[in-house]
Amino acid sequence: MTTAIKFEHVKKSFADKLVINDLNLEIKQGELFVLVGNSGSGKTTSIKMINRLEDPTAGQVLVNEQPTTSYDLQKLRWNIGYVLQQIALFPNMTVAQNISLIPEIKGECRRKDKKQQKKTEQLLTEVGLDPKSYSSRYPSELSGGEQQRIGILRAIASQPPIVLMDEPFSALDPLSRTNLQDLVVDLHENLHNTIVFVTHDMSEALKIADRIGIMKDGELLQVGEPNEILRHPANQFVQDFFRGSLGKDIYETPVRQAILFNQLAEDYGQESDQLPTISADEKLAKVLSLLCNAEKVAVQDHDGKFIGLIDRQWIIKYLNGINDFS
User: Fold this and answer.
1) How far, in Å, are 96, 140, 157 from residue 133 at the CA level?
2) CB neighbour class for 233 (10 Å; exposed up to 12, middle 13-18, buried from 19)
3) Contacts of 79 (CB under 8 A, 6+ apart)
4) How confident is the model over 201-205, as a mean pLDDT?
5) 228-277, pLDDT tens digit by residue?
6) Global pTM?
7) pLDDT digits (tens, 9 = 90+) for 191-202
8) β 211-216/66-67 pair status
9) If pLDDT is split at 50, 70 and 90, which confidence band does 176 have?
10) 3, 28 Cβ separation under 8 angstroms
11) CB contact burial 175-192 (16+ within 10 A = b; e otherwise)
12) Which of 7-11, 153-157, 236-240, 263-267 holds the top average pLDDT?
């Protein structure tokens, strides 16, 4: 698979403080890669070096096998979408104007272009916002979750091959966060772009990531698929970070995370239509209550797609795995 982004022996200092120490990392084209770590771990500084909001003190960052310094800075940034925690929509522009801003700047369309207007309406529909109701609204008329949806659409409107997301949902309520996490996964599956997503929340990383990189004090401790890191943490810090994501009460763990320990059975048949069904985002406590009166529970993804079955043996195996991990 082609490498979209590469860090080669990257170091970054601010004054006399070293914040990134010899970062070596390859992010594949078309993957949703999540950088996770505590505050001050260097994850935000790392992604800012991709679109040159910061430049390395030493080493180099490559995009599509070319050093970022070899690109025209403006063109580099136009081809990299950027979503921040601080949503930063233009308050004097309507929703439609905010979404079409980058395509207009890049010369891909003109204001009131019918083709762009249709595309904007399609994007709003894809994120569950009625174009007739939302196109002419201003940011002040939107909720935080709605504003962040528009921020995401503005970042992807010109279909950039790379999108950076820097803790975009950390200021939102839990329901909005869950909905927007699902939205990011859906958009990624549809657009096949490369997303680099920064978060301090391991639960969020486990839910959306193709691969995860864990940072601490400016160093990359481990990179791998979620279940790989979960089963083989590189050190105690990584193990503790995962354990923290499971919560104090393991029965509060979402089914989606529990699946990382133990794959679901997939023998879906006609009889499965008669089984109780839950979302993968439900907690294990819900599964246990259903298994009191049923032999199996069918699990669906957020889009209603069947992903497997849970039975009592699965639960026992999961609990044994948790004990081994702890």
Assistant:
1) 11, 14, 19
2) buried
3) 160, 161, 162
4) 86
5) 887 788 998 988 887 666 554 667 778 887 777 777 777 666 666 688 89
6) 0.82
7) 899 999 999 988
8) unpaired
9) confident
10) yes
11) ebbbbbbbbbbebbeeee
12) 7-11
Q: Tokens 């309507």, residue?
A: 94
Cα angle: 186, vertex 212, 285; to 5 degrees: 70
Q: Which pLDDT score is estimated for 324?
A: 56
Alpha helices in the chain (DSSP H): 43-48, 73-78, 95-99, 101-105, 114-126, 131-134, 144-156, 174-191, 202-208, 226-231, 236-246, 255-258, 284-291, 312-325
How large is the average pLDDT for residues 36-65?
Answer: 95
Torsion over CA of 146, 246, 303 and 164, rounded to 10 degrees?
50
What percent of the chain has pLDDT above 70?
Answer: 92
Distance CA 117, CA 52 (A): 31
- Assign residue 64 a region (left: φ > 0; alpha: ψ between -120 and 50; beta: otherwise): left
**Distance, first Cα to last Cα, the chain:** 35
* Alpha carbons 86 and 168: distance in angstroms, whole number: 8
In this prediction, residues 42-59 reach a mean pLDDT of 96
| Longest CA pairwise span in the chain (Å) | 66
Contacts with 15 (C-beta within 8 Å, 6 or more apart), sequence order: none
Radius of gyration of the chain measured on its C-alpha atoms = 21
Q: How many CA within 13 A on the CB side of residue 307?
A: 16
CB 75 within 8 A of CB 241: no
Question: Which residue in this structure is represented by tokens 């499965």?
Answer: 272
CA angle, 281 then 225 then 316, to 5°: 55
Looking at per-residue pLDDT, the higher value among 107 and 176 belongs to: 176
Residues 31-45 have a mean pLDDT of: 94
